[in-house]
Amino acid sequence: MKARARRGAAAWTRRGAAALAATLLFAPTLVSAPAAARPVPVVHPGGAEASRDTLTIDYPVSLAPSLLALRARSAFEASPSATPVETPPTLLRRVEPVRAAIGSISAPSAQDGLAFNGSKTVSVEVGRNRDASLHQTLDLTVRGRVAGDVEVAATMSDQELPFAPDGSTRELEDLDRLFLSVRAPQGEVTMGDMSLNAAPGEFARVSRQLQGVRGMARVGGAQWDVAAASAKGERRSLEVRGEEGKQGPYELTPRARGEAPPGVVAGSETVWLDGIKRKRGADADYAMDYGAGTITFTTRHPITAQSRIGVDFEQATTRFRRSLYSAVTQGTVARAGRWYAAYLRDGDDPKNPLDASLSPEDRVALSGLGDSAIAQSGARYVGPGQGDYAWDESDPATPRWVHLGPGRGDHRVDFVVVGAGRGSYADTVAIDGTRFYRFLGKSLGTYVPGRSLPVPTSRHLLDLGGGALVGNAVRLDAEVARSGLDRNALSSLDDGDNVGSAVRLAAQMNPRPVRVGGRSLGALRASAAFRSIGSRFEPMDRLDPSFEDERWNQAARTGGEERREFFLQYDPAAALSLRGELGRRSLEGGSRSSRRAASADWRGALVGGFRWEEALNGQGTERGW
Question: How far apart are CA 440 and CA 420, in angstroms?
């Protein structure tokens, strides 16, 4: 790189602070022959010769407005001829990025090679009443062929962004990332930061932000998709009603008073408002604060007490490193059938704690607790005048811990929340701001003495399914899944309730013409579905849209479910559709609901529709128009 600086006084703008920034563009040199460079015309900031009082740095750049590009000969290409060609030496040239999808790679050409595009930015900021600060960013992209029909695409970006950006932009493409992809006609391998969305079946839906390796290939007529990676967080779902006149912030991760929020993985959220999927952005529908784990809606959608907010997101991992393994395969049978299978495993790694710290004594305690995460003893004797609690047995029927104040007791006691009406103690704040716990009585409080130990969990899911077209008129589908959830991977106790299962059957009739006396009266289509979910079945992600329980006029599902649905549609004309729906849903615990709906849609010069819906269960009736 060649640089020449013209002397001059720097121009300063005094508005409480001044800033000086210089941007350097670079491109690596990958040539086997000795480098021979030729200066290119100088480009001045602003496009014209600068006047005095301006610091100017002259450097060789391409005359294109895009980032600097360099073409390097592939290591797999034949070596050049020994006879030199009498042409002017060239170091830099513009190369269009190679764009090709898997399976659509063009034949090799003389342009096979690598295209490097990148930028390096360095800025210095100084100002009144502040120290000078240096900021730098790197953005490098490599694309091209390395051998025949094998393509490589790589991205390396370092924007000096915090762990959790504010999420006010529509796209998060500027996040720090490292990505490498190798493509060939037989498949593709991806390493680095990636998104996993693999779900040929309904029960194996999964959406994760990962760091690892993923391979896709076609073997023996079947397509395979295998991934092994570390997960950035745990999948969570939230459904809440809005508050009148409050656009936000709404907390996505509930926490105890005084507890730091765990945060949300950047870009992992999917947001619904009143049943409609929304877009991120300060000029769109909502903005995220990933560090605080909150969401705020823009004024484009005023929030009321009737607003329904649904959010799927990944809560940042704070206890253990998490890993995810997936293997998905699918194929076809003849021309009218298909099959698929998927295996997913997601869980904590007990050998790699983050904020969690398990001593050998804690591991022994967890092995004997089963699925419980609470160690029964949260009291430690520290000696007279060293603690803040004392054991009181003045009432033999109800012995208790009494808070005496710092330096007045002989024990230190930890308390853990177990839920309202399930504990014996309540948290209280003294006049000086000290937080302590006082005894209320059995089943009258929210806390009990004990320690909440970080417990590693693991889950797995096996999903099998397929479908076939019968008589070119009816498509039949079937799916069965089996899941396992171990809430304490360090203990074999309470493992008898880990396994659950789910079944789905569906039939769909393709549009069939209706004719009477040789006259066409439109088309008719229908579908029917049956689904049964066991009380212990644990999917990786949600199975239904947000607020699905309200559609059935039922309380939120906490156990098993069985539902039957029938759908019929008649199109008397191309612009008119008449639909009817019938359904029945039973939940574990006795709640049963019957649902009916009818609708009409017109798609002519004037677009309109009409819908009537009714859901009836044992607790009441709800009708809507």
Answer: 12
> What does each C-alpha distance from 502 to 460, 465, 551 come to in angstroms?
14, 12, 21
3-class secondary structure for 290-357? CCCCEEEECCCCCCCCCCEEEEEEEEECCCEEEEEEEEEEEEEECCCEEEEEEEEEEEEEEEEECCCC
Determine phi and psi for 291, rounding to 5 degrees: -65, -45
Decide: residue 384, CB within 10 A, 0-12 exposed, 13-18 middle, 19+ buried. exposed
Beta bridge partners of 189: 182, 215
Q: Residue 286 and residue 303: Cα distance in Å, rounded? A: 12
* Three-class SS of 138-183: EEEEEEEEEECCEEEEEEEEECCCCCCCCCCCCCCCCCCEEEEEEE
Instruction: List beta partners, residue 565.
Output: 529, 583
Count of beta carbons in the 10 Å neighbourhood of residue 80:
11
Indicate the burial class of 426 (C-beta count within 10 angstroms; 0-12, 13-18, 19 or more).
middle
- Tell whether the torsion through CA atoms of 439, 440, 443 and 444 is positive or negative: negative
> Which two three-digit tokens encode residue 184?
């060939």
What are the backbone dihedrals phi and psi of residue 497, each rounded to the nearest 5 degrees, phi first?
Answer: -110, 25
Q: Between vectors from CA 316 to CA 315 and to CA 322, what angle results, nearest 5°?
A: 105
| Per-position DSSP letters for 57-82, written without gaps between them | EE----SSSS-EEEEE--TTSPPPPS
Report the percentage of the chain scoring pLDDT > 70. Answer: 72
Q: What does each C-alpha distance from 135 to 24, 156, 413 come to in angstroms?
A: 12, 17, 47
CB atoms within 10 A of CB 302: 13
Choose among 97, 144, 90, 141: nearest CA to 119. 141
Q: Give residue-wise pLDDT tens across range 258-269.
A: 566 778 888 888
| Cross-strand pairs, 616 | 594, 621
Helix (H) or strand (E) holding 367: helix 360-367
Report the DSSP beta bridge partners of residue 309.
240, 273
**β-sheet bridge partners, residue 436:** 428
**Percent of the chain at pLDDT above 90?**
24
Specify the pairing of strand 389-392 against strand 400-403: antiparallel
pLDDT of residue 611: 92
- What is the per-residue pLDDT across 525-564, written as a single tens digit (0 to 9) for each? 999 999 999 989 999 888 888 888 888 988 877 788 999 9
